Amino acid sequence: MDLIQPPEAEVLQRTVIFQKLSADDAKKFLAQAKLLRYQKGVVIFAEGESAKSLYVVMKGLVKLYKTTLSGVHLTMTVAGPSDTLNAAGLHVGEYFTSAQCLTDTTLLKVTDDAYFAFLTEHPQLSIEVSNLLAKRVRREADRAVSLLGVDVQARIAVSLVSLAAKFGTDLPLSQKEIAECAGTTTETMSRILRKFRQQGIVAYGRQRSTVQILDMSRLNQLANVLDGWI
Q1: What is the end-to-end Cα distance of the chain in Å, rounded?
Q2: N or C terminus of the chain: which is more exposed, having fewer CB within 10 Å?
Q3: Which residues, in sequence order, are CB contacts of 19 under 8 Å at separation 6+?
Q4: Helix (H/G/I), strand (E/B), else coil: 175
Q5: So what's the pLDDT on residue 3?
């Protein structure tokens, strides 16, 4: 476990539910936290486990996903610095997604008791949490309908647009990881990307397994039937 330094306080205060914290309150919260490091591929927690800790990403990428009965992963979101990991799980007693590191990752960890005690002391945070949960419920409801009613090309396009808005046009995810965001197979993802490449919309990234977006305008046109969901 590493000591928590001022940069971690800055990342915490960019987190949606903690944005209105004063510097002193952020320090009080951080005094109860641990800083943990995980290697790429490590599962931090699994769907259905008791939710005992709040996690905030300090560095790295983490996918939050659900697993179908056939064992297929559907990525609900990709968390980066300042994002929480299934914070809503603390409010229902268990994590309803799994969390796996896509890169080497540094996380801030606070116990559920410390988290809820802090909310009690800072009631304005409870309002922020409620707003955040409401937005995520709406987003996932819209996504469920979209996955059923929209063709796979549009789902891939909106996934690419959403990821680019969060991480930039040189996406730090593999094609397989993007396919899991769009709710499709790697084979279908490869076929659609090949079509996008022929149209000059995307190219391979620094590594052939990753994707670089070249024409965001055209991609937005393909994705405009949906709101972003990543």
Answers
A1: 30
A2: N
A3: 13, 128
A4: helix
A5: 45
Is residue 67 within 8 A of residue 59, CB to CB? The reply is no
Q: What is the per-residue pLDDT across 46-82, written as a single tens digit (0 to 9) for each?
A: 999 999 999 999 999 999 999 988 888 989 999 999 9
User: How many CA atoms, within 13 angstroms, populate the side-chain half-sphere of residue 47?
Assistant: 15
Of the candidates 98, 52, 59, which has an alpha carbon nearest to the alpha carbon of residue 82? 59
pLDDT tens-digit profile of 204-221? 876 667 899 999 999 999
Question: Which residues are 174's β-sheet partners?
Answer: 210
Chain-centre distance for alpha carbon 49: 19
CA 132 to chain centre: 14
**Which is nearest to 76 in space by CA: 136, 128, 131?**
136
Q: Would you state the pLDDT for residue 136?
A: 74
pTM: 0.85
Q: Are 53 and 35 in contact (CB under 8 A)?
A: no
In the chain, the DSSP E strands lie at 34-38, 43-45, 53-59, 62-67, 73-79, 98-101, 105-111, 170-174, 202-204, 210-213
Q: Which residues of 166-183 are buried (b: 16+ CB within 10 A; e: fewer)?
A: beebebbbbbebbbbbbb
> In the structure encoding, which two tokens stand for residue 202, read together?
């995307």
